[in-house]
Write a structure and sequence with these properties.
single chain; about 190 residues; alpha/beta; 7 helices; 6 strands; about 15% strand; binds flavin mononucleotide
């Protein structure tokens, strides 16, 4: 595909979540790019059940909310997950969203925008790389890690280092688009 379609997944669903601010910061960066089309999937809207398929890997026909999720994931060529770090890992709602599908993820690249305290959500991102591989997602090296989130991003969504972080985000998106085109041409035909 000349213009890969990106799905940005917001993995924080709690009341008062900071993830919304991260998504609002990321939105104009993605929107400014001419090499990608994109949409946002807020996991709060999807309300996926815990793994419920009788089969593994899960296979169509999917039912109910999983069917809606499968169509959103299936039409994307690449993924960015915006994830907080909870107790040294990523949120359970995100594991449920990954496990619900398989074929829709296969041979597509994924990158992570993580945020947290001292480690900037990097433990969550690192765990996600391992999990992603099991559904044949292709986790890429570049990503965004927002350390000391409460201080780095103001309540109004302003970034302490906007130029730095926009640069890092665009490098991540450059590589993600490159992988998406390459995997589409080489593996997904
Ligand atoms: C249950 C829970 C566990 C947390 N554990 C961590 C953690 O392990 N590492 C970290 O850096 N921050 C941790 N935090 C702080 C979060 O980084 C911070 O609350 C952030 O705003 C969470 O993202 P959210 O607002 O989108 O939910 C934790 C927060 C919660 C609610």
């Amino acid at each position: 595909v000349s213009r890969p379609h990106l799905l940005v997944i917001l993995a924080s669903v709690r009341q008062g979540r900071g993830g919304e601010r991260v998504a609002a910061w990321f939105r104009p960066i993605v929107e400014a790019r001419s090499d990608l089309t994109w949409e946002l999937a807020d996991l709060r809207d999807h309300r996926l059940p815990y793994y419920s398929s009788a089969r593994h890997p899960p296979t169509p026909p999917y039912r109910g909310r999983v069917a809606a999720w499968a169509s959103v994931v299936g039409r994307a060529d690449a993924y960015v997950v915006i994830t907080p770090e909870y107790n040294g890992g990523y949120p359970a709602v995100l594991k449920t969203a990954i496990d619900a599908l398989y074929h829709e993820w296969r041979f597509k690249p994924i990158a992570f925008v993580s945020y947290g305290g001292r480690r900037g959500g990097s433990a969550a991102a690192q765990q996600l790389r391992e999990v992603a591989i099991e559904v044949d997602l292709v986790p890429i090296r570049r990503g965004v890690s927002i350390q000391y989130f409460g201080q780095a991003m103001g309540a109004d969504g302003s970034m302490a280092e906007p130029v730095l972080f926009a640069g890092v985000a665009n490098q991540m998106l450059d590589d993600l688009a490159h992988w998406a085109r390459g995997l589409q041409a080489g593996l997904r035909g």
